[in-house]
Amino acid sequence: MRKNVVAVAMCLTSATAWGQSQTLSGVVKDAAGRPIIGATVVEKGTNNGTATDNAGRFTLSSRASSPRLLISSIGFTSQEVTAGSGEISVSLAEATTSLGTVQVVGSRSQNRSVTDSPSPVDIIDLREVTTKTGQLDVNQLLQFVAPSFNSNRQTGSDGADHVDPASLRGLGPDQTLVLVNGKRQHQSALVNLFGSRGRGNTGTDLNVIPAASIERIEILRDGAAAQYGSDAIAGVINIVLKSSVDELTANVNYGAYDAKYRRDDQKFDGGNFNANLNYGIGLGQGGSFVNATLDFNQRQHTQRAAVPAPDGLARREYGDPKVSNVSAYLNSKFALSDRAHIYVFGGANKRRGDAYAWTRFADDDRNVPAIYPNGFDPVITSDIWDASAVVGVKTLLGTAGWELDLSNNFGSNRFEYGVENSLNATLGATSPTTFDAGGFQLQQDVVSLGLTRNYKTVLQGLNLAAGAEWRREWYSLFAGERASWDTFSVNPEAAPGSQGFPGFQSKDEIKAQRDNFGAYVDAELSITPQWLLAAALRFENYTDFGSTLNYKASTRYNLTEFLTLRGTYSTGFRAPSLAQINFNSTFTNFIGGEPVEVLLARNNSAVTQKLGIPSLKQETSNSANVGLTSRIGSSLSLTLDGYYIKVKDRVVLTSQFSSDDPVIGPDLEALRVGQAQFFANAADTRSLGLDVVLNHTATLGAGGRLNSTLAANFNELKIDRVQTSGRLTGREEEFFGPREQAFVKASAPPSKINLTFDYKVSKWGALLRFVRFDKVTLIDWNGDPMNYQKRITTDLTLSYSLSDHIQLAVGSTNLFNRYPTLFDPQLTETGGAWDPVQMGANGRFYFAKLQARF
User: Fold this and answer.
1) How many other β-carbons are positioned within 10 Å of the β-carbon of residue 177?
2) Is pLDDT at 798 greater than 50 in this prediction?
3) Which part of the chain is the TonB-dependent receptor plug domain (predicted)?
């Protein structure tokens, strides 16, 4: 049997090796007849591809008799052609949106190209990124590709260990709106309480969407609340799902970290395995299709607890959590006629995680030696269920030219906590060691109606859009089992609840909902071929805090064929999330290594009302963006965008007030908690920054292509004002003190610079990337500054096409094993030798990727 298998394999190999081969050649130009340098030419269903040279020409070998070629370039509409016997000549039109395609974020015009946008938009081709880098999830992919995007994994941060918070331009995770195929994506039910970023914020969990299901990601780096509604203060991330057909893509990836700071002698840890499949089926005429993705990802714990505290009481377990993730996503379109179609997309994600909490040592009064004679390391587990579904119809109305888009969008995120390897000390030796700790759920349902029409005869073109949206949101918090939070008589003086994460109590339980109605108008007028004016106006009404009206004005002017100026000014808002309004919990925090019970009181609780803290209201913003774009031929492009963002009444998590406080202390003692904190509209912030993106494409060597990219974000965030109220009036330094302010300012480093060289020749490819993270300053538990010095990480990937259909890539991220500045673990937020900062804290990562495309 073995001989037969070998013989068959040899025959298949020989057939592939000696199959008839032909050389294809051609030229790719734009609509004006200019050569497009660096356009991608790929044989459909394979990894066999090349790129055009400085004259827009390409050559490609193929074994197929009549190969189909996919030709694409950022900013242009892709084309699929069948290669014949002669030279291939292709003219690519500038990318625009039309019935049946997803609009480029930032504009509702059907005739607006990416390069014509009056607002800065990044277009990230996920096919290119995922095959050349070591990152496997969407957050980490964007972290090292888009300088204005920031995300890092956290540890010792309860729920934030399982859901990575992410942000744009240094603002909060909840100040960036996420769309999928142009439709609002629901947020996570989680409120981030610890860690170096997103404290007090909710946000959207990007990692529920597998990278294998994504065609491209559009990042609008500009305030857009007047266009898209709440949360779009910093910008918009639009995830465009794949719509390819008759092509099967399969990926298997594995990587592991170089374990420098482990307590044992293990050389590698944090093994990360990912496997996925994507396939699309064409369904007759009219562009109907179904494209589906299955994805499995599992990563193991890392252990970075080898840096001891001066007194020797550092955490025994510290590092990334263990997480397994299973996703299924679908994107589809069904033509009803040549004027109308139905679209359906969405998916489901199941995540299971476990993260180490703080060590309870053997002599800790929170330990029961009869159960754990050597102390214990509690494990916080998570079961996260996420699902979304969008159904809609697009149609052209009569002969007037109006396009109608009607859709319904439902999404749900449910987060269930568990605690393992733990105990409730008030139960003594009879305590269980595993607990159900409760959790929370957030759901939304959105019905939206949009109308768009383009008038080509009004000056140089007028695009009008109008629409309305109704959204209902639900939030619930449910309690854990009684043993996870209550006090029992066996040892009533001990700390109650499951150690590591006390469960939510029955008095914490709540169900809340609200409705929102929004209506907008949007217009873009091309006064001349060079000059564009745009404006948007949006009204929204929330049942829990009232109405708001916001606007945006934009312009773009082409000074020359190669130089364009653009600018925007907008007002914006963000409604406080239902989770921020209704979250209530008593949890354990470690301050200088000592455990303290902390009450986080919901906004309308008896405690907050007694203190005179008002109900949460919306954040408001004013933002401006001024920039220029320059394209010299098709080989060199430059964008510079300066921005200003002022946010009033930011919702933040206040500093913690202790039980010896002269105002609040007696109330806390009655509740048997050591400290308390609250959500409040406590801060006004101001951000000033600059985004720079420089791209260059050149031919290098015989048939080789080198893409070089320099991308940078420079950002300064200042806190202009801290406001208090009620019985805490005049105590600004205590209400939202320097330590909490430092966390807000450290949401992004003052600068992040990315330099990438991407080279491909024949079957070989290489990517070299340098990322410079600027200094970040936090404040330790003693009130002293912790300066995390600037660092440069280096990534290297080498790839080789084993055949037309199979490609292998190997490489390393953080090649030189750089770590953040080390500090005393007793003084950090997390109990490790560093806080989670932008570059990550796991060191060098080795990986290998095998991709098959048929």
Assistant:
1) 27
2) yes
3) 114-236
Chain centre distance of CA 164:
8
pLDDT in tens, 293-305: 999 999 999 998 8
Go through 524-556 and write b for each residue having 16 or more CB atoms within 10 A of its CB, e for each that does not.
bbbeeeeebbbbbbbebebebeeebebebebbb
Q: Which amino acid is at 577?
A: S
pLDDT tens digits, 673-704: 677 788 899 999 999 999 998 888 888 877 78
Give the amino acid at 404.
Answer: L
- Enumerate the β-bridge partners of residue 772: 753, 792
Pairing of strands 22-30, 88-92: parallel
Question: CB under 8 Å to 216, separation ≥6 — which residues?
Answer: 123, 124, 125, 126, 240
Measured distance CA(53)–CA(834) in Å, rounded: 47
What is the domain class of 22-92 according to CATH? mainly beta
- Against a cut of 0.85, is the pTM above it? yes
- Tell me the two tokens of residue 227: 């266009």
CATH class held by domain 114-853: mainly beta
Q: How far apart are CA 382 and CA 416, in angstroms?
A: 6
**Domain ranges across the chain:** 22-92, 114-853
Mean pLDDT across 252-273: 91
pLDDT of 91 reads 85
- For the chain, first and last CA: distance in Å? 28
Distance CA 198, CA 743 (A): 8
Question: Among residues 676, 665, 660, which one has the least CA distance to residue 597?
Answer: 676
